[in-house]
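Researcher: Let's try something more involved. This one mixes different molecule types, so please make sure each is placed in the same coordinate frame as the others.
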Amino acid sequence: MSQKNVQVLLANRPHGWVQESDFRIIESDLPAVREGEVLVKNQYLSLDPYMRGRMNASKSYAASAELGQVMVGGTVGVIVESKNPAFQVDDAVLGYLGWQQYGISSGKDLQKLPKSEQIPLSAYLGVVGMPGITAWFGLMRIGQPKPGETVVVSAASGAVGSVVGQLARSQGCRAVGIAGGQTKCDYVVQELGFDACVDYKGDHLAEALAMAAPQGIDIYFDNVGGEILDTVLEQLNAFARIPLCGRISQYNATEPYRMRNFGSFLTNRVTLQGFIVSEHLEMWSQATQELSKLVTTGELKYRESVAQGLEHAPAAFIGMLKGENLGKQLVKLF
Amino acid sequence: MSQKNVQVLLANRPHGWVQESDFRIIESDLPAVREGEVLVKNQYLSLDPYMRGRMNASKSYAASAELGQVMVGGTVGVIVESKNPAFQVDDAVLGYLGWQQYGISSGKDLQKLPKSEQIPLSAYLGVVGMPGITAWFGLMRIGQPKPGETVVVSAASGAVGSVVGQLARSQGCRAVGIAGGQTKCDYVVQELGFDACVDYKGDHLAEALAMAAPQGIDIYFDNVGGEILDTVLEQLNAFARIPLCGRISQYNATEPYRMRNFGSFLTNRVTLQGFIVSEHLEMWSQATQELSKLVTTGELKYRESVAQGLEHAPAAFIGMLKGENLGKQLVKLF
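Model: All components are placed in one shared frame. Result:
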């Protein structure tokens, strides 16, 4: 019997905003599992802003996804067939099997996951997975927060930003979010415990930010780039640090935003570092442990936005790029 | 007898380009030297780009110079009268006595200088002084050069840039200068030993830079900011470092240049750090020793542009901001 598989392929490289038509959904036969391989039934697919960069042919911080091939992405699932002695049927695994229901793997790129009551498998794509580790690395290693400092984070209700602010609080810092709309701001303050949150869709971002960060900004964890970053630059304190994690405001832009306040980097002796967390594997183990502990104790809260069914992945991805999600955006495949 | 003193005061805060009329030259009586003080006869006044920032009321990386007061600046001179047991008449000292022939000091801000055949006093304002140490700190500590990497430095024929490129060569790097005009470029390559130099006043800066740095740019030591920085950003390698030292292209601008290629910081996982060397005093001793040794052995070459007489300091300062000097700009006071 040959297993049927649903896959989402990259059909076109978008110019400007991604369209659903840039993807193509197909049903295919799974090849047989060969010696040394396993077959994984994916339970969740992760949707992340970095994927927009992979859709371009131009240089980004990772290789492009290939036209006509399965779109790349992180997954959690369970082994349903194993010809690799390292894996048993029913083992839960984290992988990078892409936008498809089933994936075949040699096992090299799979990581076995513990089965825990407190930490569901989906969390390994979010709060204790790549986005959470991104927050941990950027804040702790690049930001180096000190008690009493003010930490501002953009996309504060998202998978990365929500962890940044809560970690900042745990370090004794004032945590200020920037998010789009009152619902997200309320979530960030009331549920995640940030000290304040500024709605960037409101008027007078600069004034609102100055009120939320009256002592100035010591660390700005940037997920968005563009005009919000430019506004933050005017309110930095001396020796501010900027972990530069993402530029979601620019990913679908055909003309780049032109930065006005670059002078702040010298005036305030700022340190900025662009990073991609997969290039810092040496600290994944420590970060995962610390994040898992905080989730288990309830100190680190998170939410998930879950699209049902792989056929809704393209719309959910576009929605995430437009900021329609709250917390980690996932697709539940079955 | 009261000693006559010539002083240059800050008369106006410039808007845009500095004018000679922003300074006022006066002759005054020196107050008597009190117990614990010394009188210094300044031999050389240092002229440095950072002084332009001090002329503004707005926030820079240091306090503003005061209107109607002596313009600030570094000096070397000799003690001509001492009521402080730590100093003898004829001692040579480095100080920050400003744009004046004579200065009175408690001695706290003075540093005694060795009298050496190989290193003249004026060099303590340049190659083995603040500019040289700026080059050393930015390149060695922030840039962290590795053999085989390409180091690009702007204002390459200036007091800081000329040291950056020579230090880069001593670290086994390819050193590429950016300077204004063929004379400066010839000096940088033929006399200082850079591998290449690009004339930013020529057409096609990007193409010329790509030819001079065919392997891409690993370290960009930036003294100028603006469009040159923006052009360099397009040619950075992954994990490039940018010691951000100055922005001379912007100091007299009334509207800031708007940066187009900010995305390179994330795409290439760049680390940028703005710095001011006087905030890193812990490494001055090591830097001075290393630079002095390289000057003594002839491995580190330098030139000085010397204006004769304090009354020519304003014109020399404006000339330096326009790039008319080669190497360290000084004023010889007597």
